[in-house]
Amino acid sequence: MSGRISTVKTVGQLRKRVGGWRAAGETVALVPTMGALHEGHLSLVRLAKRRAARAAVSIFVNPTQFAPNEDFAAYPRDTARDRKLLAALGTDLVFAPSGDHMYPDGFSTQVEVGDVSEGLCGASRPHHFGGVATVVTKLLLQCLPDIAIFGEKDYQQLMVIKRMVRDLDIPVKVIGGPIVREADGLALSSRNAYLSAAERATAPRFQQTLAECAKRLSVGEDSKAALRRGRAALRRAGFALDYLELRNAQTLAPISGKVSEPARVFGAVILGRTRLIDNVAVPRRR
Ligand code: AMP
Asked: How much distance in Å is there from the Cα of 182 to the middle of ligand 1?
């Protein structure tokens, strides 16, 4: 496939392109990203290509979902490389707006989603999901796709967006794509680039611990005991623990006792200066 890809930077240009497709009766899928693309992102683009006639990808490192002490400035950016990867997949359009275009002077609107935004990452990053919900609302209204695709890597984010789209009657179908992992189990993330060689060697223990915990829960271990054991294993492996929790896979409500509903184990840890998040489904008992 050609190494060239069409890139637009303004909402007007985006609407013109997408409007043309829709007028021709073609369906459109949008994959929102912050760039520094890896196989996890690319799997979502392939899903978009399968589910719609046209696939658009947005690349925007959204300042409002980072707290002042977080890594907005250091976040990896390589749009030229991203565009090559997207062109190779036959992506139809890249939307790469500037910060000023997304947030002009005087911008003062915020979308807040209750319930599923609370707890987990919402507890340790209190402004994060407000920033995510606001920018995703803007992207959805700017593009007006039929389908929007998000990764289960950020499972709470996926649930926040599903709830927001439902609550605000945004006319888009939200689809989740499965987590893409390295061979050793580490979930692909743009932030893995921050890990030193020693940290990278430790990092797979995170997912392994979540998977062990999920397996114990699936054979009937009490959640309190399984989580206690998991937290201790993470600390022993060298992670600073943010949280390790068991939640209902749809509502994200906490689960206590034995698992009898669709459930996932959610974790966030800090390794050196890098915050890692991951989640694993509790296998259903046969
Ligand atoms: P980001 O660029 O980190 O904002 O991610 C853009 C989209 O890619 C989000 O919907 C993420 O959930 C998704 N994503 C990131 N990493 C992965 C992964 N390892 N597997 C599947 N999806 C991912």
From this structure: 14
CB 263 near ligand 1, within 6 Å: no
Substitution candidate for ligand 1 out of 30, 44, 190 with most atoms within 8 A of CB: 44
Q: Please confirm, yes or no, whether 38 is among the known catalytic residues.
A: no
Catalytic residue (choose from 38, 41, 101, 127): 41
pLDDT recorded at residue 2: 47
Continuous H helices in the chain: 11-23, 39-51, 79-88, 99-102, 121-124, 128-143, 155-167, 197-202, 204-218, 223-237
> What confidence tens digit (pLDDT) does each residue in 225-235 have?
999 999 999 99
Percent pLDDT > 70 in the chain is: 99
Q: Is the CB of 151 under 6 A from ligand 1?
A: yes
Please tell me if the CB atom of residue 75 comes closer than 6 angstroms to any atom of ligand 1.
no
Q: Which two tokens stand for residue 152?
A: 């289960």
Q: Give the pLDDT confidence score for residue 4 in this predicted structure.
A: 81
Indicate which atom in ligand 1 lies nearest the CA of residue 41: 8
Q: Are 54 and 92 in contact (CB under 8 A)?
A: yes
**With b meaning 16 or more CB within 10 Å and e meaning fewer, what string describes 259-281?**
beeebbbbbbbebeebbbbbbbb
3-state secondary structure of 198: helix
Contact predicate 154/23, CB 8 Å: no
Contact 48, 151 (CB under 8 A): no
